[in-house]
Fold this sequence. Notes:
The two termini are about 30 Å apart. The chain folds into three domains: about 5-90, 2-Layer Sandwich (Uridine Diphospho-n-acetylenolpyruvylglucosamine Reductase, domain 2); about 95-225, Uridine Diphospho-n-acetylenolpyruvylglucosamine Reductase, domain 3; about 240-320, Uridine Diphospho-n-acetylenolpyruvylglucosamine Reductase, domain 1 (Alpha-Beta Complex). The model has no long low-confidence stretch (mean pLDDT about 95). It has helices at about 5-20, 50-65, 125-130, 150-155, 195-200, 220-240, 260-265, 295-310, and strands spanning about 25-30, 40-50, 70, 75-80, 85-90, 95-100, 115-120, 155-160, 160, 165-175, 180-185, 210-215, 245-250, 270, 275, 285, 320. A hairpin with a 3-residue loop joins β10 (about 165-175) and β11 (about 180-185). Helices cover about 30% and strands about 25% of the residues. Bound molecules: flavin-adenine dinucleotide (FAD). Flavin-adenine dinucleotide binds near residues 72, 149, 200, 209 and 246.
Amino acid sequence: xxxxxxxxxxxxxxxxxxxxxxxxxxxxxxxxxxxxxxxxxxxxxxxxxxxxxxxxxxxxxxxxxxxxxxxxxxxxxxxxxxxxxxxxxxxxxxxxxxxxxxxxxxxxxxxxxxxxxxxxxxxxxxxxxxxxxxxxxxxxxxxxxxxxxxxxxxxxxxxxxxxxxxxxxxxxxxxxxxxxxxxxxxxxxxxxxxxxxxxxxxxxxxxxxxxxxxxxxxxxxxxxxxxxxxxxxxxxxxxxxxxxxxxxxxxxxxxxxxxxxxxxxxxxxxxxxxxxxxxxxxxxxxxxxxxxxxxxxxxxxxxxxxxxxxxxxxxxxxxxxxxxxxxxxxxxx
Length: 333
Ligand SMILES: Cc1cc2nc3c(=O)[nH]c(=O)nc-3n(C[C@H](O)[C@H](O)[C@H](O)COP(=O)(O)OP(=O)(O)OC[C@H]3O[C@@H](n4cnc5c(N)ncnc54)[C@H](O)[C@@H]3O)c2cc1C
């Protein structure tokens, strides 16, 4: 078990972060950093705007033996009402472009024709920019919130494609080991999952950090790519709720749609406190204004119990739980 963090550890952490150019704040509310608009405070909070800063923050947290949580768009995470202990770093690294212009260290999987993005680049913006540059493959992503790292970790996908389809490599910092470059095969992609997501789900304090990624995006016709992306976006706008949420709350069980199961059980529109199964799309839980993480968890457990009882199917959350919980968020079935 981790020994208590001393005042000296804390001061050293703050000093290391300041040396790396990161401003540190205490007790920063995370509600405004998540698309759910839910979440208690972070003990320490900093914003990283370069890969060097992100890596320095990870090293400083490891040296001080403090848990590190990196937040991208906060669009696939439920932060507990008690907040996150240790250091939270908001990833606002923003560079992306052709591999030839990347200033990071060359490695065995880097190819000149690839497109490279730092891990904090918003995925939808990356998709639009690569379409404009006449590179195909990320059209599905124009409507998906969050960052490149979030997509690399969770194998984000939509419209019958996903991150794994075009990812060439990911540059990852591992606690105690430093940098490594992983191929798509190394990342062991499955539907909405990867080796990295498994590591995050293990809940250890020492977590890998995604720094950058390279994509294989073959040349394609800009007008065709744009038309496809616009159609996806329109379809999305017509079917998804606009209230704060974290997107689909459950993975679809093989051969089923989680939303359909929830709807069949009469839970569409069901509220607990300020959280509700969206009347528009039953696999979305929305924050109706004053929703708490406890409200969201209560709805998750309600749906899991009902679906298990009626269909014998296990609903697995697509979102990740972050922060300090009085008890494990998922009740046993
Ligand atoms: C309205 C809406 C629609 C959505 N539609 C889709 C969809 O169509 N398809 C889909 O797949 N998803 C969808 N999502 C979910 C979400 O957009 C994706 O899962 C996205 O990839 C998450 O990225 P993020 O940067 O927001 O991750 P975050 O929520 O910030 O983080 C997710 C997890 O990864 C960790 N993490 C983040 N960055 C790093 C890093 N650099 N290094 C290490 N760990 C890190 C976090 O600590 C957390 O555990 C939707 C969400 C919303 C709100």
